Amino acid sequence: MATEKLPHDFPRRRIHVPGWFRGFDVPRHIVRVDINILGKIGTHGWQVRLKKPSKFFSDVHYGTAKRGSPKASLDAAIEYLAGIYKGPKVLIRSEPMKNKQNQALEAGIREAWTRKKGKKVKELYLEAMAPTNTISPKRFYVGTENTVNAEKYAKALENARIARADFVKEHLRAQKKRGWI
Fold first, then answer.
1. Model confidence at 137, in pLDDT bands (50, 70, 90)?
2. 3-state helix, strand, coil in the chain (%, to 5)
């Protein structure tokens, strides 16, 4: 069946088609079109809206009955979607952005100066960022503005690099598990 080409965790929703007893589990990027014009047949089918131009799958063209089959046209739409869907883009930077303020650090690692409430001295942390916003960054303490030195900075930077590499490895593993890469 065509749905096996899409990743198993591909988002779906339940759609009920007027005149049909049971609903359909429809993948994301496919919408139902039902236009009823009084005295005319109207337009009924599924539209794949992933790339422009979108593609329409009419019930009449994919069924045996006069009014067509929503199930057959949905299967054709899913097959078409599976053929063009390449998965979400994996955007993992390997080099820092050109307009980044802090050019000394690599992609996914940043300096964070903070001042605790009631304190006058700033503290420096290095943060390792995950490729997605769903995971909080890991912070590595370097020192206060009075105690920062090259040795502490290098140690925190090495820890941040290891954490960033772990984040990237876990992200790629999850993408591969979903079948996106």
1. very high
2. 30, 25, 45
Q: What is the DSSP string of 102-156?
A: -TTS-TTEEEEEEE-TT--SEEEEEEEPPSSTTSPPEEEEEEETTT--HHHHHHH
Bridge pairing between strands 55-58 and 109-115: unpaired
Q: Return the C-alpha torsion angle 30, 91, 130, 136, nearest 10.
A: -40
* Domain membership of residue 27 as a residue range: 2-84
Identify the three-state secondary structure at position 42.
coil
Domain boundary (51, 84, 117) is at 84
Residue 41 inside a domain? The answer is yes
Question: Do 126 and 110 form a contact (C-beta atoms < 8 A)?
Answer: yes
- Cα–Cα distance, 60 to 44 (Å, whole number): 8
DSSP 54: P
**Do residues 117 and 165 share a domain?**
yes
Strand partners, 144: 123
Q: Which of 49-63, 82-96, 132-146, 148-162 has the lowest average pLDDT?
A: 82-96
Tokens of 138: 């890991």
Whether 130 is covered by a domain: the verdict is: yes
